[in-house]
């Protein structure tokens, strides 16, 4: 009697098992989704506010960590709620994630150890320096550099043959466990060992034949320890970022990659190597042989590499991760186009070997469009920030698995509408670009003739002193700007407030004894945004903040159409400042290449066209400044090196239009107008002939933060025009002594002709306070006066 009952249950459980198997088997055949990284700034810039509160002594380390923990939770939940399969952890940072690796690996130079600071304060001192005279603390910051071709800055800690590695802090395990306690499974993220050692700084006193990559054997055991701990904790996957693969030199690193990944694979979770920012090129020849789980490609920038990589890995066990959703721009992804590209990979490898993802970390994008209240509905329909990009990644994976969502359908409509808008253009702007001639790209006379005219015009002493442009942006300045934006101040009241700030800046320079003045830029919210707001063709976010370095965030403008200048942008302020003093005033502009690189550019028109449109607008401004009596004009191009393509085969065309854009901006004035340009955090040794080709009368460069290493470039190439290597680091709160600046001038004078040297800080003083600015510039002026006597 019990048999039918038993048979019923047997049949039921058999069918249930088959059903569950089919579900799991089907899942295993599905395309998955991933995000490589996410903004670390927090909603409402919570991270920035907490860090700066800690620096100011207004909160504790425990309170800072509490905010950081809340931001990490918020990030993970946002990605999970979007439906993404692989959620990153371990890439959150309080300052910089390359700095995190050095600190976590115990690479702490002796000058920081000697300060006997807490662990957190040591970490921050490595990033920004620290000075507390009462406690006898005085230590300079580590070198800063640009992260590939982005405006994100990395902190490059010194490494030498004596460098040893030990796991001081297992951030990756800690964050993995933190997320898991919230019910969120993550894929921990580390820099790959090859990229880490390629980005850090070679100590200046290291032997000439030493390179940090030679430390690989010392570093591998620490990576093994981290990865083994993650595997033991339950992590199934790990992401090792190797963006060095986007550079030519990676093609010679086959032996190093083989050594590293054969050592790591046996103890690690399943490894995905990412190659964001460019194409892997010939490196695929050794990558396909590595014992890794998956290889990520940046197909946003380099879609043409897909075919050759698929051919290389189709007969291997390596899965492919397709970086189809851009981590570098803010335009809505064309999901239909991405779906077609992904389908090619599925056709070759099968769905179970394909992951769709962002092309890079989303740290380069704002958090969400949902907080933007002033953009039009049409403008919002064009855009996708980090939160929306996560939704795009998930929607793309669903569509490839035969489950198109409403988001996918709406995306098709939005892309079509954007394409229709892109067809509109300003014929006057296009015609003007088409009419650019070679004569418009050159000054009227060579530098020696110009210099003679400028000496009479400016009457500056030997070793003339100046600043890079901005003075401290005080709370009062920011409040006045905010009130004006809210309509609480009239235009006349706001202008009076800015005039008072300019008067203060001029009086300060008179008192300090500087030679070539600036108006201080109190009216400028940002060196790019300010200009974009006065040009046609840009739109702006309210809360579209992106991290530049540490707690420094920017709101990049967005180029949506042709660019032109309806009216003068800076003349009113520079002319007013000049009216307050008999000293020469330097007009301050941001150059066309930098405005473009520090904005989100259009995707439908080449960067060359956009840059030349900007150059023509700035050309008009330069001429107007000169006509208003401004005798020196600085057109800053700190991003000209940053925008250099990562592969050398792509350099020539970029450098041609970048140099032409600068010259187009600056060549419309007479010989007696002194044209300056400024470069910071740009390792421009490789492109120095192009820097020379700019033909600026004076260039100023960041030199002190890089420990004067850029002077080596001048030893190699020479430089015939005037130059101002920065004599102190302005990104640190410490005040340099007069003797320190004298020593820097003396070191510079060994390389540069004394009669061509200008004395200035590394960069603008916007982020500094007035007290430290006064102390620093007082020491700078005293050191310059000493130099005039010393090198008379």
Write the layout of secondary structure elements.
Layout: H1 3-28, E1 32-34, H2 46-55, H3 61-81, E2 88-89, H4 97-104, H5 110-113, H6 119-128, E3 130-132, E4 137-139, E5 143-146, E6 153-156, E7 158-159, H7 171-181, E8 187-191, H8 193-199, E9 201-202, H9 216-232, E10 237-241, H10 254-264, E11 270-274, H11 284-287, E12 294-298, H12 306-313, E13 319-325, H13 335-349, E14 354-358, H14 377-380, H15 386-400, H16 406-422, H17 427-434, H18 447-458, H19 475-485, H20 491-512, H21 529-532, E15 538-539, E16 546-549, E17 552-554, E18 558-559, H22 571-579, E19 586-590, H23 592-597, H24 607-627, E20 632-636, H25 651-666, E21 674-679, H26 688-693, E22 698-701, H27 711-717, E23 722-725, H28 738-749, H29 770-790
Parallel strand pairs: 1-14, 2-8, 7-9, 8-10, 10-11, 11-12, 12-13, 13-14, 19-20, 20-21, 21-22, 22-23
Antiparallel strand pairs: 3-4, 5-6, 15-18, 16-17
Helix pairs in contact: 2-3, 9-10, 12-13, 13-15, 17-24, 19-20, 24-25, 28-29
Protein name: 5-methyltetrahydropteroyltriglutamate--homocysteine S-methyltransferase
Binding site for L-methionine: 468-470, 521, 636
InterPro entries: Cbl-indep_Met_Synth_N, Cobalamin-indep_Met_synthase, Met_Synth_C/arc, UROD/MetE-like_sf
